[in-house]
TrEMBL record:
Gene Ontology molecular-function annotations: DNA binding
Keyword Transcription appears in the UniProt entry: no
Keywords annotated in UniProt: DNA-binding, Phosphoprotein
InterPro entries reported for this sequence: CheY-like_superfamily, EvgA-like, NreC/VraR/RcsB-like_REC, Sig_transdc_resp-reg_C-effctor, Sig_transdc_resp-reg_receiver, Tscrpt_reg_LuxR_C
Protein name stated in the entry: DNA-binding response regulator
Highest classification ranks of the organism: Bacteria, Pseudomonadati, Pseudomonadota, Gammaproteobacteria, Cellvibrionales
Keyword Signal: no
CDD domains: LuxR_C_like (cd06170), REC_NarL-like (cd17535)
One annotated GO biological process: phosphorelay signal transduction system
Signal peptide: none
Residue stretches making up the Response regulatory domain: 11-128
Amino acid sequence: MHTNNDHTVHKFIIADDHPLFRSALRQSIQRTFPNALLYEAQDMESLQRCVSEHRDCDLLLLDLHMPGARGFSGLIFLNGQYPGLPVMVVSANEKPEVMCRAVDYGACGFLPKSAPVEMIDEALCQALAGEIWLPEGIADQCAAASSELAVADVVASLTPQQFRVATMLSEGLLNKQIAYEMNVTEATVKAHLTALFRKLDVSCRTQAVLALNSLDLEPPGQFTPPPKQTPVHA
């Protein structure tokens, strides 16, 4: 545990509907930043008032499950209204995909409520330094998820013909095979591939296939149909 030697007076807003957790987080912040100015909010209404009164706040610590908001709506709303305000999500919902989505929606990090004091210190210092902070190992998972989201956006933008080309490309078909299946010329297939590569921001077939395969799912187990029932005659 350490005390920050920086004499800058940092302003924090703690937004959580549980008084005991607000108190625990306040004590953690004061250990690291003895000169800190701390403000608290217990729901979205009081939080909006607090943020509007303290627009120069250095860091907002936001619980995901705040009364007056659902899911990520509070985080998204605050980022829209106050784009310059760093918001670190603090939540007991510690699933990696939740942490990644929080950052995707503009959070400067995700602090688990189970975090020990040393981790809280590290998270606060990195957030104040303008860094995105996540628990160890989570950032790599988020990078993979962000890449998958980008590929999903590309697939959503494809024309029906481009989608067919992309599907057959990922299945390993050659240009001439794709042309045969679609009853078009190889030149047409190449034009579709050029457009696909540009959208995926790749330069070759292998990179395109790897990107498209990121959307794959494991095949389901063998389906066993239920046994036929013998009709009962009255």
